Amino acid sequence: MHEAVTRLRENIGKVLFGKQDVVDRVVCCLLARGHLLIEDVPGVGKTVLATALARSVACSFARIQLTPDLLPSDVLGVEIYDKNSGVFVFKKGPIFANIVLADEINRTPPRTQAALLEAMSEGTVSVDGRTLTLDPPFMVIATQNPFDFEGTYALPENQLDRFLMRLSIGYPPSDEEARVLDVRPANSPLHTLGPVVSREQLIELQDRVDRVNIARPILDYVVAFAGATRRESKLLHGLSPRGSLSLAQAARATAFFRGREYVIPEDVIDNIGPVCAHRVITRGVPGDEHETGRILQSVLETVASPA
To answer: pTM for the complete prediction?
Structure first.
């Protein structure tokens, strides 16, 4: 199983140069059955990263290019009248794939953004009074530009809460950017990527993550941190119980990724930023990721780590 994880991270690393830490986070998010939001400026590789993950797993993949005129039915599917049978037939939308890339999610109106909400939260889609179950594994990888860019709609808090992690890629180091310039002109290595993990292997990996042991002192540590965020005067809203659950699950995936069958405090600490920063609301400037990170770090320092 750990060899499969290594193949996965190495395969993605073939196309995203100099960002192995980001790749590792993405793999952990997949192992934890989480959804991923990648937020950064245009041109740093958000879509490349998401597509590389999808191509590395032998699962069905769909890409939704979210635009201002996109309707919920374009995501979920629509009833079409079949002249031969004389009945309406449901044509499934791209949300029914195993891995769904929602590209530039904040360029589509809130009504269409909300169409993803049930699927991400419950793993089901409700259409015309029917509830359809999505086949596992199911992961939404959404990309977005910073909210202050022209033509963007800020994601509501309830939808942000459905993403296990929010990541930024950032600019590559100078030597890796030069490597990109050297490799990419002729062709993109993205087109040569093939699956290195089967659907069955991925499901088994996710099941193994669920069985990673998280001792009661570690659970108490997560709960104590969540409670401290709710009492923090600089935060308007602290971490919700869903946020605590997400932090614990991300810690399990991190422990498994690192070759352990048990969680240690560092697995929790390393996920505070990616898992919690987009779930709390500061009293200062909204959307200030750096300020939110500083507040969470200061809150973490007030919570005693278990031995």
So the answer is: 0.90
Q: Report, at the CATH architecture level, how domain 1-185+195-210 is classified.
A: 3-Layer(aba) Sandwich (3.40)
Outline where 232-269 has alpha helix (H): 241-257, 265-269
CA nearest to 7, candidates 197, 153, 144, 149: 197
Query: Residue 5: which residues within 8 A CB-CB, separation 6 or more?
Result: 27, 31, 205, 256, 257
User: How far is residue 122's CA from residue 49's CA, in Å, rounded to a whole number?
Assistant: 25
**pLDDT tens, residue by residue, 75-128:** 999 888 888 888 888 889 999 999 999 998 888 888 888 888 888 988 898 887
Task: Give residue 263's identity as a one-letter amino acid code.
Answer: V
Residue 307 burial (C-beta neighbours within 10 Å; 0-12, 13-18, 19+): exposed
Domain definitions of the chain by residue range: 1-185+195-210, 211-302
CA distances from 113 to 38, 78, 136 (A): 15, 17, 22
